[in-house]
């Protein structure tokens, strides 16, 4: 059995040394950090009682709502599903993705770490 363990350990070490980024990303327990698509809140008209999916990763091209981009660009993050108030209303949804009251803006975008951070720019591979 000792030989089997040694062979397995050798195989794991050699694969880790050849591809350290693969192992590190699979072992991480922390979700990826969202990117910042906007440094301002987004004014949105919500229909009363409707369910919405707010983008938490920042990669969606339909900000502030999810378009599924997290499945490819931010695995580990998923949209926040929420119901709008009973009546139609206008709300300000967070654009920086760092609010402490998701999906609503709480002014976090005014803090230095957001102000000094780069904005995420979508790249279109077809162009």
UniProtKB/TrEMBL annotation:
Pfam families: zf-CDGSH
Keyword match Cell membrane: no
Residue ranges crossing the lipid bilayer per the database entry: none
One GO CC term, this protein: mitochondrion
SMART domains per the UniProt record, alphabetical: ZnF_CDGSH
GO molecular function, one term: metal ion binding
InterPro entries for this protein: CISD (IPR052950), FeS-contain_CDGSH-typ (IPR018967), MitoNEET_CISD (IPR042216)
The keyword Cytoplasm is assigned to this record: no
All residue ranges annotated as the Iron-binding zinc finger CDGSH type domain in the record: 39-75, 77-115
Gene3D superfamilies: CDGSH iron-sulfur domain, mitoNEET-type
Domain of life: Eukaryota
Keyword entries, A-Z: 2Fe-2S, Iron, Iron-sulfur, Metal-binding
Cofactor(s) required, per the database record: [2Fe-2S] cluster
PANTHER family per the UniProt record, alphabetical: CDGSH IRON SULFUR DOMAIN PROTEIN HOMOLOG, CDGSH IRON-SULFUR DOMAIN-CONTAINING PROTEIN 3, MITOCHONDRIAL
Name of the protein: CDGSH iron-sulfur domain-containing protein 3, mitochondrial
